[in-house]
Design brief:
Layout: E1 2-7, E2 14-20, E3 23-29, H1 36-48, E4 54-55, E5 59-64, E6 70-75, E7 80-81, H2 82-85, H3 91-105, H4 116-130, H5 138-146, E8 166-168, E9 174-176, H6 187-198, H7 211-229, H8 234-252, H9 259-279
Parallel strand pairs: 4-9
Antiparallel strand pairs: 1-2, 2-3, 3-6, 5-6, 7-8, 8-9
Helix pairs in contact: 3-7, 6-7, 6-8, 8-9
Length: 280
């Protein structure tokens, strides 16, 4: 068994490309024992994902190494991330592509979760304590505190559905990778993460998209919003998703170290506060 190279990942785990008798696979492993439980939850999400059109890498094996660190081995998928693919996708394909992706993550359930209010308010309070020095977030926190979080319907979800975690193969098969455990699971969270890229351009914050790429991203965003608005009470669901998006953006602050990302977050918060206030 030969380790080929270390791969880039965003979930806090180690990703390695390994060759075993001419078979390439990816090993995802924890860096600390304290993360074992979280990685197990991520593995369970990946194993339980079901869709007729969208796939996840096949799981080959899972275990603990000699240091007690949990890992699992999975199929290596060769392709481009959706962030990269937005440069090449045909404009005529975008709407069908987004519809396929949305149908794979949407769960038709409008059952409110009575525990959601306490779960979200606890998270908001924790965040407020962590970044109490950010006075420009005062209005944003007030918006989040006033929102009725029972509108966020509990369901299975990916947990970190950014464009970087969607792979498009050479034959245009869609794969979801790098599932993430979350303090709350909802398909609405996945849509919020997609809008984090399609509307706010999180995955492009270090590189300005070209004019043609920006057009494709805008078309994809409008196609996603249209899918949401088709749902029963779609406008209400979209309004709730923008609150989730605002919460997602604020959750990034404690982990941010570079000025460019801080500026991105500040501008994103301003845009979202304005959008939410205008819809109220």
């Amino acid at each position: 068994m030969q380790k080929i190279k270390q791969l880039v990942g965003y979930s806090g785990c180690k990703l390695e490309l390994i060759n075993n008798q001419d078979c390439l696979f990816v090993r995802k492993s924890t860096k600390h024992n304290s993360y074992n439980l979280r990685l197990k939850k991520q593995l369970k999400k990946q194993l339980n994902f079901k869709s007729s059109t969208v796939k996840t890498p096949q799981i080959y094996n899972y275990n603990y190494d000699e240091n007690g660190l949990f890992y699992f081995d999975m199929e290596f998928i060769s392709g481009k991330t959706l962030a990269e693919y937005t440069q090449d996708i045909l404009i005529t394909e975008i709407v069908d592509f987004i519809k396929c992706l949305f149908e794979s993550i949407y769960f038709n359930s409008d059952e409110e979760n009575p525990k959601a209010k306490d779960i979200f308010n606890k998270k908001i309070k924790e965040l407020e304590m962590k970044i109490s020095n950010k006075t420009n977030l005062y209005e944003a926190f007030n918006i989040l505190k006033c929102f009725e979080w029972t509108q966020i319907y509990k369901s299975p979800c990916h947990g970190d559905l950014t464009l970087e975690n969607i792979i498009i193969t050479y034959n245009k098969q869609i794969y979801l990778i790098d599932f993430l455990d979350s303090f709350y699971n909802s398909w609405m969270l996945d849509v919020a993460k997609l809008l984090q890229d399609l509307e706010l351009k999180w995955s492009f914050r270090y590189v300005e998209p070209s004019a043609t790429q920006s057009l494709r991203i805008e078309i994809a965003k409008e196609a996603l919003i249209e899918e949401i608005l088709k749902l029963e009470n779609g406008d209400k669901k979209l309004f709730a998703i923008y609150h989730l998006l605002l919460l997602n953006i604020i959750r990034i602050y404690p982990y941010t170290k570079d000025e460019k990302t801080f500026n991105f977050l500040d501008e994103s918060v301003k845009k979202l506060v304005l959008k939410i206030n205008n819809k109220q």
